[in-house]
Amino acid sequence: MYYFRLRGIGVSPGIALGEVLLTERVIFTERKESISPHKVEEELKRLKKAIKRTRGQLTQIKEQIKEKMGEEYSFIFEAHLLILEGKSLHANFEKIIKEENCRAEWALSRVHDKYDKLFESLKDEYFKQRKSDITDVLARVYRNLESVDRKREDEGIEKILVSHELLPSEAAVKLSKGNVLAVALDMGGQTSHTAILARSLDVPAVVGLHNISQKVKNGDTLIVDGTAGEVLVNPPLAIRKEFLSKKQKYNDYRKELRKTAKLSSLTLDDVSFSPLANIELPEEVNLALSLGAEGIGLFRSEFIYFQSTSLPSEEDHFSIYSRIAKEAYPHPVYIRTVDVGGEKNLPQLKIEKEPNPALGLRAIRFSLRDKDLFKIQLRAILRASIHKNVKILFPMITEIEEVEEVKLLLREVKDGLKTKRIKFDEKIPLGVMIEVPAAAAITDLLVKEVDYLSIGTNDLIQYYLAVDRSNEFVSYLYKPLHPSVLRLLKFIIETANREGKEITVCGEMAADPLSAIALLGLGLKKFSMNPIFIPRIKKALRSVEHKTVKRVIQKAMTLRTAQEIEECIIENILAKHPKAFLMGQVI
Predict the structure, then answer these.
(1) Which residue segment(s) compose the domain that 507 sits in?
(2) Which of 144, 172, 187 corresponds to the end of one domain?
């Protein structure tokens, strides 16, 4: 047994030491097995039986997770049940079996390939991770076609799970038993549901390890460092002792961090700030609030479209928006209108492939081209606004004319609802995303047209610095603390504050302690992020004095490079407020 290290993506912090247990994965067939036409009905019955069995299993898993972890985590399997019940999914299965006279396994394989290609074509990592949910449901149906229960070789044994991919339902069953020390996977990402489950159960996890499942064997000893995104295979005794000491320090900090969620959002000198949550499903609301969120700063409405292969109806939209508004009440809910097109193509629409999709027909441009679809969404949002805590957010605005066109369309939809005597919030607040440099440059004009602004720093920084952060050759140039980026953000934030308009940041900068402190110093008070990062940002901002941060950022704005700015913030804030960065980057 020789010692080596592997680097991946740490998706659930913590450190574990233990033996490897390799887990199997479902391999969808690549061979079409034909059947005679008179056996098609029998095959459809076989498929329906497998779907029924899958429904029962997912319902059982959902209830188990609800009982062990709370309702806020069972949402994952609510979503899986929605996928399973999708009419278009069933129609696809039946169509393939009937037209090709084939076994159900082949139909499942064909549908899986279709979704696999769709999600792999997306550049957005958040969207990409939804592929595992579709795969999970299809794999479970595939297994159930065999009608054989798989052997549970890992029952009661404390091990480190190693696999090519651990699907969400597998993760729920295996991780909730309490005998999994850590997880190490070839595939996966920060926003996958398996990662969410691992974090919620305090199970260290590292993904993206590129064939770890081929490089280790059962019985090998691993150290999984989910904080650093590293896995050590067969480490020597001295290194094991070093990591066990690091584990104790991490556990002590974790206990302290958990207390933060319930504390007030105030800096040391009593300046208030608001942590908000970015979510994709209504079931995430309770989780967000339990972690200290003071509202839903971004609901990604496009996920309604990804729940099915058919277009959602107005009622589909309304039921989800209304549920979120009710569960979040009295906290605000910012619903972003659909951000599709570009790399986020909908399976239900045939959108022509574009040579440069990131700069193409997406977000508000897509909505204003397909006004009928847009009006369906606007009607549903307005109907849900009766709870008086809903706000509409329009993405990727580039010019004033787009805002004016949106307002005219909204007026038309409002008039239609009035004619039908359907109630809604007449004064529903309207906001725009500042994520295009052109919009940032006219913030002083846009702010007069809307009730609030939201800065999408992920896209804004990419467009502003002309850097694709997913491109390994140039990603080193993606620097949120670049002097030009901070100057641009300063202009946007100060303009909104001067006009008395609300301003939020909902990109990854809001979830990074160093960047969040910089934003606080620029005058930002609302930070919207993945719910799991709220405690660490509250911890960081509660550990500083606003007046000190403001002074440090003023000094940092005179510096020449991102590195100089970062060093200035760390040195000056750490000197007075050491707790602000205590392991803050890794929780």
Answers:
(1) 269-581
(2) 144
For the purposes of burial, counting CB atoms within 10 Å of the CB of 441, is it exposed (0-12), middle (13-18) or buried (19 or more)? middle
| CB-neighbour burial class of residue 137 (10 A; exposed 0-12, middle 13-18, buried 19+) | buried
Is residue 87 located within the same domain as residue 166?
Answer: no
205, 163 in Cβ contact below 8 A? no
Q: Is residue 262 part of a domain?
A: no
- Which of 29, 33, 35 has its CA nearest to residue 98? 35
Threshold 0.90, pTM exceeds? no
Considering the domain architecture, whether residues 182 and 273 belong to the same structural domain is answered as: no
Contacts of 281 (CB under 8 A, 6+ apart): 75, 78, 79, 303
Q: Is there a single domain that holds both residue 120 and residue 199?
A: no
Cα 138 from chain centroid (whole Å): 22
- Cβ contacts of residue 351 below 8 Å, gap of 6+? 341, 345, 361
Q: How distant is the alpha carbon of residue 178 from its chain centre?
A: 25
Cβ proximity of 434 and 440 under 8 Å? yes
CA distance 267 to 547: 10
Q: Which residues are catalytic?
A: 193, 506
- Residue 587 confidence (pLDDT): 37
Domain harbouring 50, CATH code: 1.10.274.10
Do the domain assignments include residue 231? yes
Answer yes or no: do 195 and 300 share one domain: no
Q: H or E segment at 97?
A: helix 87-100
Is a pLDDT exceeding 60 seen at residue 140? yes
For the stretch 148-169, pLDDT in tens is 555 555 555 789 999 888 877 7
Cβ–Cβ < 8 Å for 37, 175: no
CA dist., res. 207 & res. 214, Å (int): 14
Position 258 in a domain = no
